[in-house]
Amino acid sequence: MRFARLLVIGLPLSAGFSVRPLVSKRPPYHPAPLSMSEQQQDAPKTYPPPNAVPDGMKTYEAMHKQSLEEPDTFWGDAARSTLKWFRDFDRVSQGGFDTGDVAWFTGGQLNACYNCIDQHLPQRAKQVAILHEGDEPGVVTKITYEDLLGQVCRMANAMKELGVKKGDFVTLYMPMVPEAAVAMLACARLGAPHSVVFAGFSAEALRDRIVDANSKWVFTTDEGRRGGKTLHLKSIVDKAVEDADCVEKVLVITATGAKVPMGKRDVQMSEMLPRMRPYCPCETMDSEDLLFILYTSGSTGRPKGVAHTTAGYLLYTGMTTKHAFGLEEGDVFACVADVGWITGHSYIVYGPLVNGATSLMFESTPMYPNHGRYWDVVQRHKVTQFYTAPTAIRALMSCGPEIISDYDLSSLRVLGSVGEPINPEAWRWYNEHVGKGKCHIVDTFWQTETGGHVMLPLANVTPTKPGSCSFPFFGIEPAVLNAQTGEEVTGNDVEGVLAFKRPWPSLARTVYGDHKRYMDVYLNPYKGYYFTGDGCHRDSDGFYWITGRVDDVLNVSGHRIGTAEVESALVLHPAVSEAAVVGFPDPIKGQAICCYVTFVSGYTESPELLKELVKQVATHIGPFARPGMIVGTPGLPKTRSGKIMRRILRKIAEGEADKLGDTSTLADPSIVEGLVEKANALL
Ligand code: WT7
């Protein structure tokens, strides 16, 4: 660790899951997220839910059992009672993991936007659907269900006029303004799958995603605001679409009102929308029609367009929102993620709205204008459920808990955590200082590919242990596998990799345009299972503990970044010959990025060059992927067959050069000796 710190070249914390660079210089509470063995030592206490419903666990167990023993009855009933159908389905589920031909509710027809808005109008026309808290405190927009229908319909009609048709892909590059949700729902209304690209991605990353989806339409805003800073979104889009010939129109929504250059393909939506009729009929969609794709990183290759379909996704996100957070009438549900990630799709837009809840959308950061902002939002809007990421909690912890007592947080009942394993110390801080011991802490494990929570405590039902995501949701059958043999490890107090034994409704159906890749990444590694890519431990009480990715995927402030993407960005620089990227522990971000690079002859390592390489990654991917450390080396440690030995690079970055393990297969041991020497000299 010390070696790692010494090599860090003075870099700011990247903007994470709504986390801004820290104002405070106080040392973090905990040096690093705990390793699994530490979690175990640290774990004994079980917390009962503060407002436990009688026999909750018994009911959960019975329902979970039914969901596995009679899945068609369980899911068929759930789908009919949760969703409104234009046509009932013929079959509940079909297909499986052999070829990845999974399909749910076939024969059924529905529309996701209808389910999120229209179905609620008889009871909730005047209820707030989207409660938007702007970047500046107290700049609030309330959109009722009735208003939301009007706004979505105007947007959908404008899109139709511009030529958007059912089946067309629409890319969104938007800040956290209400129009981001409105545009997503308008896409759903027209049956045009959306592809939301997080507004922290660079122009190049955006272009790659537009081109991969062959998207003719791109939504953006003039600018965005976040933490008092301006995001120049339109100009990034201009750069991205320069050589993306597939793009016909860029739909520019007014957010700050700044004057931005408008080109031939650009459409000023503020001029178009007022002319539009505030009603637009819904397209009738089949259950398995695509609702959206969302790009995410894997261990190899380019980002994958993870594809989600309509009925299964909507049902599952609706049910998990309800059960994970114990939704009740009148609740104000606040998921402070960004709609650019799956968390925002499932738990800001679709999950809360299909339940007819009030969903709070937060445009700012936990640190703006100071580190009491979350609590200010909770107090002013009387938030009942609050959902954030461990990285944000750790950042706030490092500022101290004092500021929290300035706010009345008594409206809170459930506190959620998502995105990475939560270290027990952060869990307890969240529980004690924010929840005052009266809230249920729900640590929800899931992935872009799972669509919704797969392992989680159910609010007011499941007892919790700090750092454990507890038990499976209905219909989820987890398995711990021996990573090497692929055999299932049964019984308790075991570890291995986490897999699932059967499909569930919101499982991603494919990688857009590349089903083989879907099979190779998720379904082929262990035949008969969906492979998560995460390590896990099932403790002696049967609680599940996620121990982090076992592949080359990094989790930096809850942002998922593939090491291969960072490596590709680095080797595009003329000075770089080869690059190998690994993660190392970071007290706030969970993980930070360490890059080992070899230089093309004629280039020598210098602080300026290293800074340039950091910029290189920020430009090719986005500022959130900025490396925390870059190490120049004359060569990379490789096996005799030429494979880079990342395990060794990881150990060196973690400051554990004394625990390299077996190095006998190295082609040139002197390279490692050189790197270790560098380490020893610095330690
Ligand atoms: C990866 C998925 C799911 C929404 C946000 C991230 C890690 C996610 C947890 C958790 C431990 C977690 C896993 C997973 N992860 N939630 N509660 N405990 N790890 O979605 O970008 O698709 O990343 O995030 O490593 O595989 P994503």
From TrEMBL:
Domain AMP-dependent synthetase/ligase: 139-504
Region (Disordered): 30-52
Nucleotide-binding found in the keyword field: yes
Listed transmembrane segments: none
Keywords, comma-separated and alphabetical: ATP-binding, Ligase, Nucleotide-binding, Signal
Catalysis performed (reactions): acetate + ATP + CoA = acetyl-CoA + AMP + diphosphate
Signal peptide residues on this chain, from the entry's feature table: 1-16
Any GO molecular function: ATP binding
GO terms classed as biological process: acetyl-CoA biosynthetic process from acetate
InterPro entries, per the entry: Ac_CoA_lig, ACAS_N, AMP-bd_C, AMP-bd_C_sf, AMP-binding_CS, AMP-dep_synth/lig_dom, ANL_N_sf
Family: Belongs to the ATP-dependent AMP-binding enzyme family.
Protein name: Acetyl-coenzyme A synthetase
